[in-house]
Amino acid sequence: MYEVKENPYPMRPRERLILLGEQQLSDIELLAILLRTGTKKESALELSAHLLRHFETLSNLRRASLSELCELSGIGQVKATEMRAMIELGKRIQLAKNQREGQVLGSQEFGQRIAQEMLNLEQEHLIATYLDGQNQIIEKRTIFIGAVNHAPANPREILYHAIKNLAVGLLVIHNHPSGKVKPSQADKLFTNKIMSSCENLGINFVDHIIVGAGQYYSFREHC
């Protein structure tokens, strides 16, 4: 399964990664980059292939202990510790990816919570909250920070991050530093605009919430 043919590529793995991206590299090439060097008898690519043949699958390699790695010819303690560190970092990255920042249970609960979070902001902030299929928060992203009583009404960047996050639902929040949460005509136009854009993309537009002085206004509750 894991074999290195003679001169399989005209470029080294690092060069191929730079030119083509990491997705285009084989398991052997990616591992060779991490190993950096081979031995007197084997190149880094050949050592990588030997290592992968020994463990048969990436899953087995992931579970290999430090001592098991050190037992292999060409894999000393330095390479083994670097590999264990790489594997552990990969686990933590995956864990961070899977973590969520809470769940949106409803406009009232979320509105009250976000009103307290944004209580002392002196400038207007526009925040997009991206949800998965269970209304778990994937990400809360500040889209805009601007002058008092001014916010842009272009949903392009908001929807860009919705698509990037593979979001199923979207909440938009912005604050009125004046403390008055009654929506302006611009707020209403912005809400209609982003709602329409979400419909075109198949994203559930959950709500637009305005907060100020610890209070909130929900377009969903007033529709």
What does this protein look like?
- The chain is an alpha+beta fold.
- It is built from 9 helices and 5 strands.
Summarize this structure as a short list of keywords or feature phrases:
223 residues, alpha+beta, 44% helix, single chain
SSE layout and pairing:
Elements: H1 13-20, H2 27-35, H3 44-55, H4 58-63, H5 66-70, H6 77-98, H7 107-117, E1 124-131, E2 137-146, H8 156-164, E3 169-175, H9 185-201, E4 204-212, E5 215-218
Helix pairs in contact: 2-3
Which range does the strand content fall in?
Answer: 15-25%
- Uncertain segments of ≥5 residues (pLDDT<50)? none
Query: Helix share of residues?
Result: 40-55%
Q: Characterize the overall form.
A: elongated
Q: Helix tally?
A: 9
Briefly note the structural class of the backbone: alpha+beta
Question: Brief description of this entry?
Answer:
With 223 residues, the chain is α+β, with helices and mostly antiparallel strands. The protein has helices at residues 13-20, 27-35, 44-55, 58-63, 66-70, 77-98, 107-117, 156-164, 185-201, and strands at 124-131, 137-146, 169-175, 204-212, 215-218. It has a 5-stranded mixed β-sheet.
